[in-house]
Amino acid sequence: APGLRVGLCAVCLPMPTAPADSTLVSKCAAFDAFSAGKRPAGGNVVRGVRWSPDGSCLLTASEDCALRVFHLPSEVAHDAYATTCAAVEAERGDGSGGGDGAATASENGNGAVTGGGGGDSEEELRPALRIDEGESVYDYAWYPLMSAHDPMTCCLLSTSRGRPVHLWDAVSGTLRASYVGFNHLDEVDAANSVVFEPSGRFIYAGYERAVRVFDVTRPGRAIETRPTAATRKSRDGQRGLLSCLAFSPDGSGLYAAGSFAGSIGLYVDNAKAHVALLGGHTGGVTQVQFTPDGLYLLSGARRDGRIIAWDVRNTCQPVAEYVRSSPTNQRIGFDLSRDGSHLFTGSRDGCVLAYPLHGPPSEPTTLLSYADAVSGVSLHPSLPLLAVSVGERTFPLRFGGKRRSEGGEGGE
Q: What is the pTM of this model?
């Protein structure tokens, strides 16, 4: 549907049988929250969407320099839980059963995911909280131990242009703490990426040719600065702005840092030097994510139509590539199923694609299709729900006295 900005769709993994030509059911969507009020030039584009670790709410960042938190509607959660139960019963029984009109998904002959579903009416999502950063939001992250039952753990990080890293209360929207990085001139230096390490005790922030580590309990200056390259022209190390960070879930302390210079560095939390330096993208790296077992790393880049899977435990070489449309500077997000069996990705052409990660290479299955670019996808941590963010910058141009809209590149 044109104009959709954030939507929830039902998907089920593992999946009962569904027709190969069916589509996923859209359960609810948020449009009014991003279309109301003064809109930035090119439109109020949603830059991405992420589920909270406990799955109780969604977090988005948009072009109007705001973060929004959406609560998962109880009806949608109940339907998704019923779908999961029906899928389990179908596996144990005779293979029949669906989910009371909720969307399901299945594997066809080549292992690709296909959607199936009914026709539930779409509900409008309303933000429970809005946080205004005041400048363009570069990155954001949930506290990894967040639980809606413990308000103290309900917090999130954000970094924006010309500002310190902020720790926000996800219940009240108040600022809990600020973490400031300083450059060589002792001026405030904005982080380009942020992430909590798995225990939640430390914050890792990516800057130009450096990773700074902050103690969550000690706001202010970083407790450690880890240079990734000596100078901008250095032949050794990782150069450029560190645009994305991700920790391995296996507890080894391994983490990956992607750079707008096109490289990916592998580091460990108890050493400053990189373990390995990977280079295979033709554009700036915009996302890195480990598989749940920690054996592989997937990376995506702007102006590069490939998601590359790397063997980070043995050869540090690419083992597979997954194609999507990403010809512009807009960040296009992807996510992995919680068992690591499937890759879900957005694309510039408005499609949500699903790839099987196991077995022989196969063509992707198009789960959803929109009129604008799909900038982000996020799978619920426990329920069969897929959140997508849709939109791209559009600017009115005049040709022969008539106004015409043309897709922008959503440059970061």
A: 0.86
